[in-house]
User: Fold these one by one.
Assistant:
Number 1:
Amino acid sequence: DTAVSQTPKYLVTQMGNDKSIKCEQNLGHDTMYWYKQDSKKFLKIMFSYNNKELIINETVPNRFSPKSPDKAHLNLHINSLELGDSAVYFCASSLEASSYNEQFFGPGTRLTVL
Amino acid sequence: GDSVTQMEGPVTLSEEAFLTINCTYTATGYPSLFWYVQYPGEGLQLLLKATKADDKGSNKGFEATYRKETTSFHLEKGSVQVSDSAVYFCALAQGGSEKLVFGKGTKLTVNP
């Protein structure tokens, strides 16, 4: 009965490769997010989608492309991976796109770029 | 832009000690304020929140009061347990926006 799930949990890859991280929520929420947590635990929003439409797009390189096939899924594709992309990536969801709704986070995907 | 500043960690306490983790913010208007907790190997969970000045959020023995005059939202607990060991994040969101701005997190370790 996992609320927000991510796959894979760990991802180790070489520089220059392309990889995807998948996220699914079974809460019936309309809004989903991607966050990046760096090695110093600093957490920053990357994207948010509401009903499959992009509503927040922070200053993130074009190599990162979110894709939402339906409102229960928000996948993150990363092209031409760089060393600096190594981080933990968290997916989250909320009922609506509002601070009055709690965001539920997935367990994270630890990406290591060698 | 909006920002959140938390006290530097790590913080190490003995069980039953009193906990304070300081959080101050810079924002225009009247943001909502949050504390999230991240237990080892897990995602973040909402611990408590306050949406207007003088509101007190509380949960699991933790409390924080929204102080507009000092732009602060300090987290307190009267008696910590080993199970409270985690990283605590203070965050804000403007005017109902879903965009959370996080502080850098404070790691708490509670020893038996």
Note: The CA atoms of residues 56 and 65 of chain B lie 4 Å apart.
Number 2:
Amino acid sequence: GQQLNQSPQSMFIQEGEDVSMNCTSSSIFNTWLWYKQDPGEGPVLLIALYKAGELTSNGRLTAQFGITRKDSFLNISASIPSDVGIYFCAGFDNYGQNFVFGPGTRLSVLP
Amino acid sequence: EAQVTQNPRYLITVTGKKLTVTCSQNMNHEYMSWYRQDPGLGLRQIYYSMNVEVTDKGDVPEGYKVSRKEKRNFPLILESPSPNQTSLYFCASSYRGGQPQHFGDGTRLSIL
């Protein structure tokens, strides 16, 4: 089946630093989503992208839908301790009518 | 409050003993799906449903069954659980396919 790759797999940063992570696919997607998962909870939607080239912000978070429709990135500015968690990208394929999730990027923020 | 509710949250059981994990949403969503989450593999879709009485296989359907008799409920059935089905399971729903999904809090299954 389709697969998404996320990089980096994990990262340790200092509080206040900016963070960048990305998601790539060998297939084209028509929708890209970014989720965050805290321990013991289900993923929570951060940003949804519906058009190639789209750049969308949600507070300190900014995500872009790649022009090729095969990638997306998520930036977090001025990280804080509550940014700790696992960040997942997800792509939706209109043909298969199902979502594909990446393996996640685990973020740790050091005080 | 809009939510997706899964039960049970935790279950330890033995190989071969049929079990059902229930999922209910109160948002009148058409699309519902089940995922399993395993370390390093992210979320993999098991089954999904575009609407009542319409279900389809996801990426890892083997060993699972689902049904969608009512819009709000989408139970996951393991007829004969095996240890390789030990995992964290999530139910999710959205207004329709392609829309961002709301996730439940997860069900941790351990099959001994």
Note: DSSP finds no helices and eleven strands in chain A.
Number 3:
Amino acid sequence: AAGVIQSPRHLIKEKRETATLKCYPIPRHDTVYWYQQGPGQDPQFLISFYEKMQSDKGSIPDRFSAQQFSDYHSELNMSSLELGDSALYFCASSHRRGPQETQYFGPGTRLLVL
Amino acid sequence: AQSVSQHNHHVILSEAASLELGCNYSYGGTVNLFWYVQYPGQHLQLLLKYFSGDPLVKGIKGFEAEFIKSKFSFNLRKPSVQWSDTAEYFCAVRGNDYKLSFGAGTTVTVRA
């Protein structure tokens, strides 16, 4: 079965640079979630989109922005990168059918900021 | 907002031993509960989920979990672990806002 695809899988950036992370949801999934998992930490919710509209916002810095496109893929744009942004960024997708919704996670993008 | 507490940070056990990982949550409304597993270097995979109905849910790889509403708990169990169960286990709660709130995770190390 098709899974969530994330690219790139690994990314190394310098401080103050920008990065763009991409997420391709499972086919027919209309909802995308972004999570950040710091070293040794649990995943923290950043932002989500449903039917190309932002639906929820978590602890996402103002330096970050995201959007969901017409083909339902999503991009997380990160500017003015800081050392503390080094983390594993997961994307999850779901078919938002209400109470029975289940999120399926991608392999993540490991970002290292030097 | 919901929150999740996992009691054990690191559990070490031998193959064939039984495993139980504790998970408690706090949320005033209806919750959906999940256990995800993260094998070394891999992404989060769904082990099992509870939405409603029978509070004892069975998942993949022989895992099961019991939802006890009165105790706000959703403990994960496996009667006999294998070396391949070495991983990090996350309990997660979803309220009406759809986003998942994760516990801090429990690292399980199974000795061969």
Note: Residues 86 and 112 of chain A are 5 Å apart (CA to CA).
